[in-house]
């Protein structure tokens, strides 16, 4: 699957404020995604590289993104900084600069390659990590189209800004693989037991809703915490506690 296609879906998601439209777009995306790539696509669409409990993060700030853009385009960093200030977004700035400079006409990046490279960036640490991250990301965007650059920059700086959350993704998964929203509670239950939306999506794609219903608590996968329901009066609190 080409990353260009994923970027096109992101652009359409960003352009709408209708939740129903967002769900439909995500449903179409998940149906179009090869089953072996569904987990990575879900992580990326949620603005993550892995489940939150793993602690894996890009640690790639906007300043490093600016350095990367300047390096690839052969311009001074202050020129990139000025464009970011003008447009108010690192992704929009990257898109504008790549377009203005006539850069990034090649494309050809795949979702698999992008995800693998982003994982490598996130896992890079220790002495010389900043330079290595810069090198890895610069190589990636040097082979990207302007639209791909826009969302790669937003992804790696953790500012994807698509307006979608876990609940929207859960509904889209239910529609994409079961044809109905009625199975969403089963998918959400599996997510609550594993805290890993990509893992649950992969099971749904490969084993169907019965595979999702078979998900159980596993060692090493924390259960999602549930917010407590606030009671307005003492009588309700006592009732919840069995009168004691």
UniProtKB/TrEMBL annotation:
One of its GO terms (biological process) is DNA recombination. It holds the Pfam family DNA_ligase_A_N. Keywords: ATP-binding, Cell cycle, Cell division, DNA damage, DNA recombination, DNA repair, DNA replication, Ligase, Magnesium, Metal-binding, Nucleotide-binding. Coiled coil: none annotated. GO terms for molecular function: ATP binding; DNA binding; DNA ligase (ATP) activity; metal ion binding. It comes from the Bacteria. The keyword Ribonucleoprotein does not apply. Gene3D superfamilies: DNA ligase, ATP-dependent, N-terminal domain. Residues 3-174 form the DNA ligase ATP-dependent N-terminal domain. Belongs to the ATP-dependent DNA ligase family. This is DNA ligase.
